[in-house]
Write a sequence for this structure.
């Protein structure tokens, strides 16, 4: 997951191209807004529980919340204070404690971590100095690679939001009193009349980006892809549809499962998505401390790649490839352009996508008509991360920047690509080109899927 994509500062060979044409002062304000938004969310996630909850490990799959809090500050110190600002290190002795590659999550509670009050003070001290650096940093085209277009500041804002998503996962895994609340997302207005699937015509399109100033290395460079015509679900697969798979014996029939997935089912005695359980003939789920009936019309959540793949096989369909997903989400056949988002090039609004922990659950299938793509598919941004059939691989011409450990070390058949973001993702870390990846066994993440078929 996202919090293991961190590293100490390293040397880069170059900067992603295409950052010109951006007003430095506009980017400075954008960076400031993104950093402040991320820190406010971090405070919500950490101030909502007591110190005992912050230092506890709620699952061996996750870090203690206090580790994430200090790690956020440490990465910001390394990149913004030291690398960009050239400042002397504040706490060099803790770099190793908060190196995600040096210490696996299960081992982090045994480390001499900063206590909650000290972690908060450290992160706040770093942030104050970072904002001073941002105020005077030259963000023009000819600047140093990390400063150009405000890349380092955007990278750190994305990093903090990725950890906020990780901490929200920890909140979902914890037991005890409810700590977080949020209003329900808007209801769909035309779900009953939406077609079950859309046809995405075949042909070339531009995948990835060379123009987005804060795009990360694995999103680059833009390149042409040829995609054959295919049909794609208009909305993500719902809990009700997935329940029919369960009731038809989906978890007891090896025909639908990849061999490794069938081994996982048998080893862990799986019978439903994570957090679901059966009681008095009804499917219930636990969601951020609340027990509730599983909503049939909401996208299914907390399923592994193996479960998504098995459902698609059972339904006589398949998972879309990563290229198919991006073409459905970004390609505008009227202009031949690839858009930043399904609805166009403007940043997301609350009417277009369920992002930023605004609702603490996916919206019902068919919601957000203003966010639909030219293909007709909806909810491609926000709500649930969507598994694709594709392995996480570099694009042609990929260059690691600013460090190998963000993407390069994860490339290969061991990780599957997820697209589109979820309700737990902030807009700064979610766009039409953004690529997430994880192990195919992973279930605690906010993952769902939609299916496809050949035309």
């Amino acid at each position: 997951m996202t919090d293991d994509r961190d590293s100490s500062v390293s040397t880069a060979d170059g900067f992603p191209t295409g950052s010109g044409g951006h007003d430095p002062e506009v980017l400075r304000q954008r960076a400031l807004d993104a950093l402040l938004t991320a820190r406010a969310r971090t405070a919500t996630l950490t101030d909502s529980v007591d110190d005992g909850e912050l230092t506890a490990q709620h699952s061996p799959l996750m870090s203690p919340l206090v580790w994430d809090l200090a790690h956020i500050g440490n990465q910001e110190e390394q990149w913004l204070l030291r690398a960009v600002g050239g400042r002397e290190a504040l706490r060099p002795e803790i770099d190793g404690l908060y190196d995600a590659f040096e210490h696996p999550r299960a081992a982090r509670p045994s480390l001499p971590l900063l206590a909650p009050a000290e972690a908060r003070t450290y992160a706040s001290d770093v942030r104050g100095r970072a904002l001073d650096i941002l105020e005077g940093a030259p963000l023009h085209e000819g600047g140093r690679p990390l400063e150009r277009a405000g890349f380092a500041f955007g990278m750190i804002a994305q990093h903090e939001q990725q950890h906020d998503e990780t901490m929200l996962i920890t909140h979902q895994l914890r037991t005890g009193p409810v700590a977080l609340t949020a209003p329900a997302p808007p209801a769909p207005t035309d779900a009953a009349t939406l077609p079950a699937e859309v046809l995405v015509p075949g042909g070339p399109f531009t995948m990835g980006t060379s123009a987005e100033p804060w795009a990360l290395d694995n999103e680059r460079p833009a390149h042409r892809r040829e995609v054959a015509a295919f049909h794609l679900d208009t909305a993500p697969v719902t809990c009700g549809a997935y329940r029919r798979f369960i009731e038809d014996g989906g978890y007891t029939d090896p025909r639908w499962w990849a061999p490794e997935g069938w081994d996982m089912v048998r080893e862990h005695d799986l019978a439903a998505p994570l957090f679901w359980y059966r009681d008095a003939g009804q499917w219930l789920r636990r969601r951020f401390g609340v027990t509730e009936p599983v909503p049939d019309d909401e996208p299914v959540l907390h399923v592994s790649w193996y479960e998504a793949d098995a459902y698609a096989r059972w339904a006589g369909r398949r998972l879309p490839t990563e290229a198919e997903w991006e073409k459905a989400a970004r390609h505008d056949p009227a202009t031949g352009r690839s858009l930043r988002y399904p609805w166009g090039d403007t940043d997301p609004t609350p009417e277009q996508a369920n992002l930023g922990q605004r609702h603490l659950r996916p919206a019902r299938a068919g919601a957000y008509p203003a966010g639909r793509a030219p293909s007709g598919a909806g909810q491609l941004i926000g709500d649930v991360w969507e598994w694709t059939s594709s392995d996480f691989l570099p694009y042609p011409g990929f260059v690691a920047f600013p460090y190998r450990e963000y993407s390069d070390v994860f490339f290969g058949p061991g990780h599957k690509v997820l697209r589109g973001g979820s309700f737990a993702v902030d807009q700064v870390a979610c766009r039409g080109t953004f690529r997430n990846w994880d192990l195919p066994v992973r279930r605690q993440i906010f993952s769902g899927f939609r299916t496809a078929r050949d035309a």
Remarks:
- The longest strand covers residues 385-392.
- The two ends are 33 Å apart (CA to CA).
